[in-house]
Amino acid sequence: MFTSKITGLGHYVPENVVTNDDLSKLMDTNDAWIQERTGIKERRHIKKGDGNSTSVMGVKAAKMALKEANLKATDIDMIVFATLSPDMYFPGGGVEVQELMDMKTIPALDVRNQCSGFVYAMSVADQFVKTGMYENILVIGSENHSGGLDFTTRGRSVSVIFGDGAGAAVVSRSEDDQGGILSTHLHSEGKHKDELALQGPSTEHWVPEIIAENPQEDIPYYPYMNGQFVFKHAIVRFAEVIHEGLEANGLTTSDIDMLIPHQANLRISQFIQQKLKLSDDQVFNNIQKYGNTTAASIPIALSEAHKAGKIKKDDIVVLAAFGSGFTWGSVIIRW
Ligand code: COA
């Protein structure tokens, strides 16, 4: 077995900053409500005509990650692309990245695990590298949420939370058998699939059917979220899967140097921090600036934390996510 290591990180967010006050001009909401319930102050939205899309943002993040890894696009053996908001219904974002970055005819795999997407994608990359099949894998999480949210008062409990952006990591084969990705742990519980979902358009809810069958006030082509139900499950599963990962490696919470939780909601991150008895220095949050960017949130946060010098060699870094599906997972890394 080989060792797999993160050798490069990158992130990109659109320039267009959307504050809570900006949203309050579109819907009945306010800065105090949003900050109190979610911790979010602002998020980024793609602006029509700025050239961004889910794949384009993914490429921008990927270029930064490749540069850090000191690799060319042609050195990459596989793309794993996580998103819930692809540019097209099909094909997925992976092939768009392959084309936009002028890569070899390498495999491009799309991962559809929403907020757990990046953790699932990292797990896939880790297996391909550890078994020796590939040497360098580009893992991307990217989301264009603003293209599909309901910015009227009807959609306010969902729309204020989500933002656009992308993050990327290069996962490479390493000779160092002490460090790297130690283990990944993935779970799902499909019985809760309807609690955080976007029903259509899909083969179950195709466009004419949606238009014919749904009154204006009940439109299933906008995301639905049972916020309190999601919150309650998230805090249990986050803690469980972090403990699972630590125990698998003979570690405890006091060994964590940096926890990067999926940026679902600042209250969720704070709850986990308290539950695991971690100090402020052991947890990194940036949801205040970007909102919840789903599959992009962990790689954006990881890239920012790393560039800010908050992650050092030999640190134990834990990535953990929970989201629609429900799905959840963790990645334990010795940096
Ligand atoms: N602005 C102002 N008021 C809002 C609002 C908004 N953006 N969104 C909802 N409200 C109102 C509701 O209509 C409700 O009004 P009512 O009491 O008159 O009926 C009131 O605020 C409380 O709504 P509720 O949904 O009970 O609030 P909450 O305390 O559960 O907070 C969430 C809502 C979504 C912030 C919270 O449940 C949450 O964060 N859940 C987890 C979501 C998450 O992390 N999702 C991503 C998972 S990966």
UniProtKB/TrEMBL annotation:
- Catalytic activity annotation: malonyl-[ACP] + acetyl-CoA + H(+) = 3-oxobutanoyl-[ACP] + CO2 + CoA
Q: Which residues form the Beta-ketoacyl-[acyl-carrier-protein] synthase III C-terminal domain?
A: 246-335
Localization in the cell: Cytoplasm
**One Pfam family name from the record?**
ACP_syn_III
What does UniProt give as GO cellular component?
cytoplasm
The chain positions of domain Beta-ketoacyl-[acyl-carrier-protein] synthase III N-terminal read: 109-190
Q: Enumerate the HAMAP family for this protein.
A: FabH
Q: What is this protein called?
A: Beta-ketoacyl-[acyl-carrier-protein] synthase III
Q: Which organism is it from?
A: Marixanthomonas spongiae
Q: Which gene encodes it?
A: fabH
